[in-house]
From TrEMBL, chain A:
This is Fe-S cluster assembly ATPase SufC. Pfam families: ABC_tran. One of its GO terms (molecular function) is ATP hydrolysis activity. It comes from the Bacteria. Belongs to the ABC transporter superfamily. Ycf16 family. Residues 2-246 form the ABC transporter domain. Keywords: ATP-binding, Nucleotide-binding. The gene is sufC. PANTHER family: ABC TRANSPORTER I FAMILY MEMBER 6, CHLOROPLASTIC (PTHR43204). PROSITE patterns: ABC_TRANSPORTER_1, ABC_TRANSPORTER_2.
From TrEMBL, chain B:
This is Fe-S cluster assembly protein SufD. Belongs to the iron-sulfur cluster assembly SufBD family. It comes from Halomonas icarae. Signal peptide: none annotated. The lineage of its organism: Bacteria, Pseudomonadati, Pseudomonadota, Gammaproteobacteria, Oceanospirillales. PANTHER family: PROTEIN ABCI7, CHLOROPLASTIC. InterPro entries: Fe-S_cluster_assembly_SufBD (IPR055346), SUF_FeS_clus_asmbl_SufBD_core (IPR000825), SUF_FeS_clus_asmbl_SufBD_sf (IPR037284), SUF_FeS_clus_asmbl_SufD (IPR011542), SufBD_N (IPR045595). Residues 177-405 form the SUF system FeS cluster assembly SufBD core domain. Residues 22-166 form the SUF system FeS cluster assembly SufBD N-terminal domain. GO terms for biological process: iron-sulfur cluster assembly.
C-alpha cells in the first residue's frame, strides 16, 4: 500500500531522515519506535504532507501514486490521515463542522455525493459513543478546552468517522492515563481490518500492549536500525535503545 | 440651504397639514428639530463624525411617507423571528395592529405604539421623550424629531421581570417608490426590572427605503435590559439609527448590534453610565458584501465612579464593502475605579474591501483600568493546516474559520433563534465556494434533538 524508498528529509537545513525505507501492506499494523530526536514524528508528518519539511531525495508512493506530488488535503481525502501528537485547538469551529466537512470532502474525492443528514447524524453519534464522548463534544469547538485525553480521543473519533486506509498516529499515548489509554486503543483496534493499515509512532512499549503490532521498526539517527515483530518492542522495554545502536553499528 | 435639505423640509410641510390637533409640546419640538436640521443640513465627510461615511445616497433621495401598513400576513410570518415573544410590528414606519402580537402581556409591562401612548397620555410621554437626546446630536436625530409620530413606548414597572422577549419589528416594503420612516422608541425600565428587547429590521427583497430611528433607553436603579438590534433588511435599504442609553446605579445594559443588511447603515450607540456599578456591554457583528457600507459608532460615557464598560465588535467584509468602527470610552474627572475594555477585530475577505477602525480613549481621571485593541486580521494558518490535514480544502477551511470568527460574538447571544439565524446568514453569505450553510443546519438539527 505504502512504499517509502531511501527518504531524505531536512528541516531548516538539518537532515532528519537519512535514507529511510519502509513498506506497509494493507492489513498490517506497524510501530515506529526510537529514542527522542531520531526522526519518528518526521516520518508520519512527511507522509501526511507537513509543509515545513523538505524532501531532498527519495520517494513515497501510495497505491502507485506519488504522494509527494499531492497536497495535504488530497492525501487526507485519499485515505492518508495523521492523528496529531499535539492536536490544534480551533476556537469557534465546532467538531461537527470539521467532521462533516471532512467526510464530504472525502466523499467528493471518491465521486460520491454529500452524506445525507440523518445518516451522518447516526454515524457520528455512534462513533462518539464508541470513544465514550458525550454528544455535547460534537457541538464544542475543536479541542478547545479539552483535556489531553479528550484531545486524543477526539483524534481517534475523526479517524473512526473518516475511515482512512492508512491511519498514522503520532504518540497517541502521550498524556493518557490508563482509562483513556484503554478507550483510545480500543478505538484504534476497531480500525484494524484487511483493507487498512496503521502506523503507530511511539516512544514507549506500553501502547503496544494494547495495540499489538505486526512489525516494529527502531529508528535511530534518521534510519531504520532494526525491524522485528512485537517481541522486539518488549526487548526494547527491558534493554533500552542503546544496544540497538551498538548492534546496528556492528 | 441646499436642495437636498429643502426637499426633506418640503415633505415635512406636507405631513404637517395632518397634525393640526397635536399637543403644543410636540409641535414645539418638531419645530426645533426642523430648525436644527435646516441649519445643519445633511452631514458631509468634512464633519469628523461622518468622515468615513458618505450619506449622499440618503440626501439625494426623494422619500415620501408611507400611506398604509398593508403587508400580507403570510409573508410577514416568514420575516418574523421564530421566538415566543410580544411584538409590535411596523410597516414602513406605520403601526400594524393586525401583524402585532400583544396577547398575555404581563402586569407591570406597558408596550404601545407611540401614537397610542400619546393619545392616551401625552404628558407622560413628553417628560422622558427627548431627555437623552435633543435635536443637537446629529442632523438625523433632528430630522427624526421633526417627523416623529410613530414608534414604540415600552414601560416596565419597578421589579417587573419579563420572561418573553419583546420584539419591535420594522418591515420594509419594496413598493412603487421608496419611502422613509422616522421611528421613535422610548424605553423606561423601572428599578430592578429585567427584559429583553429585540429590534428587528427586515423586509422585502429590493426594498430601498430610508429608516431613521432614534431610541432612548432609561434604566433605573438595578434594571437590566438586553437589547438586540438585528438589521437584515434588503441590501438596498438605507438605515440610520441612534440609541441613547441612560443608566442609573447597578443597572446593566447589554447591546448586540448585529448587522447583515442595508446598502448604507450608520448606528450610533451611546451609554451614559451615571450611577456607581452600572455596566454597559456592547457586542457587535457586521458583515459586508457587494458595496455595502456599515458604520458603527459607540460611546461609553463613564460619568460616575466604579462604572464598567466592555465592548467586542467584529467585522467581516467581502467584495467592495466598507466598514467603519469608531469606539470611544470617555472617563470624566472624578470618575475613579473605572474599567473600560474595548476590542475590535476585522477580517477582510477581499482585496477591495475596506475598514476604517478608530478606537478612542479619553480619560480625565487617574485610577482607571482601560484597554483597547484593534486588529484587522488574517486567519490562523496553523488552524487552516489542521483542517486541511483532514481533507478539507483551503477555501472551506477559510470559510469555517471565518464563521468561527463571527461565532466569538454570537456565543454571547442568549436567544438561540437569533444566534442561529445570524450564523446561518453569515454561512450563506460567505462566498459560495465555502458552502457552509449545510454544516450549520446540521449542527442546529443536532442541537434540537
Amino acid at each position: 500500500m505504502l512504499e517509502v524508498k531511501d527518504l531524505h528529509v531536512s528541516v531548516e537545513g538539518n537532515e532528519i531522515l537519512k535514507g529511510l525505507s519502509l513498506s506497509i501492506n494493507a492489513g498490517e499494523v506497524h510501530a515506529i519506535m526510537g529514542p527522542n530526536g531520531s526522526g519518528k514524528s518526521t516520518l508520519s508528518a512527511v507522509i501526511a504532507g507537513r509543509e515545513e519539511y523538505e524532501v531532498t531525495s527519495g520517494s513515497i508512493t501510495y497505491d502507485g501514486q506519488d504522494v509527494l506530488e499531492m497536497s495535504v488535503e488530497e492525501r487526507a481525502c485519499a485515505g492518508l490521515l495523521l492523528g496529531f501528537q499535539y492536536p490544534v485547538e480551533i476556537p469557534g469551529v465546532k467538531n461537527i463542522y470539521l467532521l462533516k466537512a471532512a467526510l464530504n470532502a472525502k466523499r467528493e474525492a471518491q465521486g460520491l455525493g454529500e452524506i445525507p443528514a440523518p445518516e451522518f447524524m447516526k454515524l457520528i453519534k455512534e462513533k462518539a459513543a464508541l470513544m465514550q464522548m458525550d454528544a455535547s463534544f460534537l457541538q464544542r469547538s475543536v479541542n478547545e478546552g479539552f483535556s489531553g485525553g479528550e484531545k486524543k480521543r477526539n483524534e481517534i473519533l475523526q479517524m473512526l468517522v473518516l475511515e482512512p486506509r492508512l491511519a498514522m498516529l503520532d504518540e497517541i499515548d502521550s498524556g493518557l492515563d490508563i482509562d483513556a489509554m484503554k478507550v483510545v486503543s480500543d478505538g484504534v483496534n476497531s480500525l484494524r481490518s484487511e483493507e487498512r493499515a496503521i502506523l503507530l509512532v511511539t516512544h514507549y512499549q506500553r501502547l503496544l500492549d494494547y495495540i499489538v503490532p505486526d512489525r516494529v521498526h527502531v529508528l535511530v539517527d534518521g534510519r531504520i536500525a532494526m525491524s522485528g515483530d512485537a517481541d522486539l518492542a518488549r526487548e526494547l522495554e527491558s534493554r533500552g535503545y542503546d544496544w540497538v545502536l551498538e548492534e546496528s553499528v556492528a | 440651504m441646499s436642495e437636498d435639505t429643502q426637499r426633506f423640509l418640503d415633505r415635512l410641510a406636507e405631513a404637517r397639514a395632518d397634525r393640526a390637533g397635536e399637543p403644543t409640546w410636540i409641535a414645539a419640538r418638531r419645530q426645533a428639530g426642523a430648525a436644527r436640521f435646516e441649519a445643519m443640513g445633511f452631514p458631509t465627510r468634512r464633519d469628523e463624525a461622518w468622515k468615513y461615511t458618505d450619506v449622499r445616497a440618503i440626501a439625494r433621495g426623494d422619500f415620501a411617507l408611507a400611506a398604509d401598513a398593508d403587508f400580507s400576513p403570510a409573508s410577514a410570518a416568514t420575516l418574523t423571528l421564530p421566538i415566543d415573544a410580544y411584538r409590535l410590528t411596523f410597516v414602513d414606519g406605520i403601526f400594524s395592529a393586525s401583524l402585532s402580537q400583544l396577547d398575555g402581556l404581563p402586569e407591570g409591562v406597558s408596550l404601545q405604539p407611540l401614537s397610542v401612548a400619546l393619545a392616551e397620555n401625552h404628558e407622560a410621554v413628553g417628560g422622558p421623550l427627548g431627555r437623552l437626546t435633543g435635536v443637537e446630536f446629529s442632523p438625523f436625530s433632528a430630522l427624526n424629531t421633526a417627523f416623529m409620530e410613530e414608534g414604540a413606548v415600552l414601560r416596565l414597572a419597578p421589579g417587573t421581570v419579563v420572561e418573553k422577549p419583546i420584539i419591535l419589528q420594522f418591515l420594509s416594503r419594496n413598493g412603487e417608490a421608496p419611502v422613509m420612516s422616522h421611528p421613535r422608541v422610548l424605553v423606561q425600565a423601572g428599578g430592578r426590572s429585567e427584559a429583553t428587547l429585540v429590534e428587528h429590521h427586515v423586509g422585502e427583497e429590493g426594498a430601498a427605503n430610508f429608516t431613521n430611528l432614534v431610541a432612548e433607553v432609561i434604566l433605573e436603579r438595578n434594571a437590566m435590559l438586553t437589547h438586540y438590534k438585528l438589521q437584515e433588511a434588503s441590501l438596498a435599504d438605507l438605515h440610520v439609527a441612534s440609541i441613547h442609553v441612560e443608566q442609573a446605579r447597578d443597572s446593566r445594559y447589554t447591546s448586540f448590534n448585529l448587522n447583515l443588511g442595508g446598502a448604507l447603515v450608520r448606528t450610533d450607540l451611546i451609554s451614559e453610565l451615571n450611577g456607581e456599578n452600572a455596566t454597559s456591554d456592547f457586542y457587535g457583528l457586521f458583515y459586508g458584501e457587494g458595496r455595502q457600507h456599515v458604520d458603527s459608532h459607540t460611546l461609553a460615557n463613564h460619568n460616575a465612579p466604579r462604572t464598567f464598560s466592555n465592548e467586542n465588535y467584529k467585522g467581516i467584509l467581502d467584495d467592495r464593502s466598507h466598514g467603519v468602527f469608531n469606539g470611544k470610552v470617555v472617563v470624566k474627572p472624578d470618575s475613579q475605579k473605572i474599567e473600560g475594555f474595548q476590542s475590535n477585530a476585522n477580517l477582510l475577505l477581499s482585496d477591495r474591501a475596506e475598514i476604517d477602525a478608530k478606537p478612542e480613549l479619553e480619560i480625565y481621571a487617574d485610577d482607571v483600568k482601560c484597554t483597547h485593541g484593534c486588529t484587522t486580521g488574517q486567519l490562523d494558518e496553523e488552524a487552516i493546516y489542521a483542517l486541511r490535514a483532514r481533507g478539507i480544502d483551503r477555501q472551506t477551511a477559510r470559510g469555517l474559520l471565518t464563521l468561527a470568527f463571527a461565532g466569538e460574538v454570537l456565543e454571547a447571544v442568549r436567544l438561540d433563534a437569533i444566534a442561529e439565524r445570524v450564523e446561518l446568514a453569515v454561512a450563506g453569505k460567505l462566498p459560495e465556494r465555502f458552502n457552509l450553510a449545510g454544516l450549520v443546519e446540521t449542527a442546529v438539527a443536532l442541537g434540537d434533538e
